[in-house]
Design goal:
- With about 300 residues, the protein is α+β, with helices and mostly antiparallel strands.
- The chain has nine helices and 15 strands.
- The protein has a 15-stranded mixed sheet that branches.
- A hairpin with a 5-residue loop joins strand 5 and strand 6.
- Helix 2 crosses helix 3.
- The two termini are about 20 Å apart.
Length: about 300
């Protein structure tokens, strides 16, 4: 029951690590602590924890760090993966998947108390399969969502602004302002549930989880993907859509077209950026496919 804890520090986190270790010690949790220095080191350290036999691995970080951990786990054989429980203590720029389970960055003590109960739920992961610019066949797993188009661009701007400004609110405002100077629609051809959508699209979100408010009805254990397809709209409607997104009513916007599926194929999405769990993937070459794999990760959830 000894935990392997992978700490992914964020900018301006102060004495977060010291506080967390005090909380763990007060609860007499047995653990070993490793700290990442970069994205590459997250994958290296996660692999090290897996191969050193830790059965409970807790990620202290945000959605991107959790995504790296999941992709490391998915490289392992099912026999190895089934013996490991993955947990999260939110401490990232975006903690959307953690918030879905009611893990809050401001409630570290409560999160640790829940994790010590070791309540496990087997959850789904989505997968995008694509070709990169080197003409290599690639794939990437995700817990939360994939964004294609405008929102992927905004999320990339927000992450860059957050690293410079520190403030989550200020970085969001700045990224929305910068959005005005970016492309607002993309020519896409999409196949979903036997339907072909061939037109200009503003943004596409495919979520196994809440999708940063864009797929609010998605649940990561039903073997399905929720899809929100947003057609091109006027500037004022964009602002209205952002307000509905912030207030949790995104699907009420008249330009949002929701679907539920097990697979979606994007045949064409020229110049549209793709974000995976909040991190920029880039622009795949040619068509790509997004699917769901049901109940493949053991995840620690609240009591």
């Amino acid at each position: 029951m000894r935990w392997g804890i992978l700490y992914c520090p964020k900018a301006h986190s102060g004495k977060y690590r010291e506080k967390l270790q005090n909380v763990l010690d007060e609860r007499q949790v047995q653990y070993d602590f490793v700290q990442s220095e970069s994205t590459d080191s997250v994958e290296r350290l996660m692999t090290m924890l897996i191969h050193n036999g830790y059965k409970t691995i807790v990620i202290v970080g945000g959605d991107s760090a959790l995504n790296d951990a999941v992709n490391c786990l998915m490289k392992e054989e099912k026999l190895v993966r089934d013996q490991i429980a993955l947990g999260v203590i939110p401490n990232g720029v975006m903690n959307d998947f953690a918030r879905y389970w009611d893990f809050k960055e401001s409630s570290m003590e409560q999160t640790v108390d829940w994790l010590t109960k070791h309540r496990v739920r087997t959850i789904d992961v989505g997968c995008i399969r694509y070709t990169n610019k080197k003409n290599e066949d690639c794939h990437r797993y995700f817990l939360n969502c994939i964004n294609v188009g405008l929102i992927a661009d905004v999320m990339n701007l927000r992450r860059q602004a957050r690293s410079l400004l520190g403030s989550q609110t200020l970085s969001f405002v700045v990224s929305i302002f910068l959005m005005i100077f970016h492309r607002m629609d993309y020519k896409m051809r999409i196949r979903i549930n036997g339907e072909i959508v061939d037109r200009k699209v503003m943004t596409l979100c495919v979520g196994s989880g809440p999708g940063y408010g864009q797929t609010p009805s998605a649940v990561p254990y039903n073997g399905m993907l929720d899809v929100s397809l947003v057609y091109h709209t006027e500037v004022m409607q964009v602002l209205a859509g952002l307000w509905l997104l912030v207030t949790g009513r995104f699907l009420n916007h008249r330009s949002v077209h929701p679907y539920r599926t097990r697979e979606i194929v994007i045949d064409e999405a020229k110049h549209a950026l793709v974000g995976v769990d909040g991190r920029l993937l880039g622009t795949p070459v040619g068509s790509y496919r997004i699917t769901i794999e049901q109940e493949v990760i053991n995840f620690l959830i609240p009591d």
